[in-house]
Amino acid sequence: MAESMIQINIAPSDTALGDLIAGLEMVSTQKLPNTVHAIKMATAILEYTWKSYAMGAPIPGTSIRLHSVRGAYAKSIKRKSGRLSGAVWSDSPYAASIEEGTEALDLKKIIPLGPKSRMGKNGPYTIVPMRHGTPGALSAPMPQQVYSQILKLIAQKQFAKSTVSSNTYQTPNASGQMVTRNKVNWGTSFRGPKGAGGKPKFPDVEGMTVFNVPSGGRETRGQYVTFRVVSLNKPKQSKAQKGWEGSWVVPSRQGYHLTRYVVANTREIIAQVVRAGITMDLLP
Fold first, then answer.
1. Distances from the Cα of 134 to the Cαs of 137, 150, 225, 250, in angstroms?
2. N or C, which end of the chain has less CB nearby within 10 Å?
3. Could you give the C-alpha distances from 247 to 235, 244, 252, in angstroms and in order?
4. Beta-carbon neighbour count of residue 166 at 10 Å?
């Protein structure tokens, strides 16, 4: 399992019930079919409850709610049942951070040292592609005015699209390791209208390039991308990149402690289920 694995084990909080289950360990499970079934049901209840919280369901006992729903996180929650035991766990890389929270993170100290980094006169840096959606898209939609202007320029053959060449080349990154990079046939860079003080009116998309990418068969589509330089030593930024420095700091986030509420909100029903199973097996 990953180091971030979070696990819930079924362990009776009732001492008498715990002692009883411990004593049943010496009994053949063939004589305890209802108890074994009850343990499986209890494990399923834990799994279902945890998954529902992971998918953003209201959590009894607290006003917190997981709004940034991650389907992969919910899918990572699994269960297993042993002889007279059960466990539910998640090995998602997000599990620990969702559970315990995270400290503030300055990506400017991490991204410039990544595998695609470069070494410049100001030290390590990385060129980060930022994709933009068309107006109405769920992810980073560009302003309608910008989109209309680009389409008009393309139709008038005044805006050339960029393409990624099939040729590649190797060059050292900031750590001296050889990495493979793509050659790009660069087209036009978007230059939008100016706002107050001569600054770009739409700084987020200033310098945007439109890439011609395959979309199936012989069809192609446009992919809208801007590039931002993230430097370890903060070199002087160009006008198009001013204002981006704070965007690379991920603030600290408080943990949701979902498993704490999973246990608290299922403890009573699980105890009832297990007691019922044991009673059915032991009483005539």
1. 6, 11, 11, 26
2. C
3. 16, 5, 14
4. 7
Q: Are residues 193 and 183 in the same domain?
A: yes
> Helix 33-54 vs helix 258-282: angle between axes, to the nearest 10 degrees?
160
Q: Distance between CA 47 and CA 77 in Å, rounded?
A: 7
One domain, residues 223 and 268:
no
Q: For residue 1, what pLDDT is reported?
A: 33
Give the pairing type, strands 101-102 and 219-231: unpaired
Asked whether residue 99 falls in the same domain as residue 118, the answer is: no
As a whole number of angstroms, the distance between CA 70 and CA 94 comes to: 9
Are 29 and 159 found together in one domain? Answer: no
Digit-coded pLDDT (tens) for 101-118: 988 888 888 888 999 999
pLDDT winner (highest mean) among 100-104, 119-123, 186-190, 235-239: 186-190
Range of the domain at 98: 6-103+253-282
Q: How far apart are CA 137 and CA 21, in angstroms?
A: 55
Give whole-number Cα distances, 256 to 66, 68, 106, 269, in Å.
Answer: 8, 12, 22, 23
Nearest Cα residue to 174 out of 221, 127, 239, 244:
127
* Residues making up the chain, counted from first to last: 284
Same domain for 111 and 97: no
Indicate yes or no: pTM above 0.70. Answer: no
Do 147 and 226 belong to one domain?
yes
- Same domain? 42 vs 91: yes
pLDDT at 23 over 80: no
Residue 258 lies in a domain: yes
Q: Give pLDDT, residue 236.
A: 52
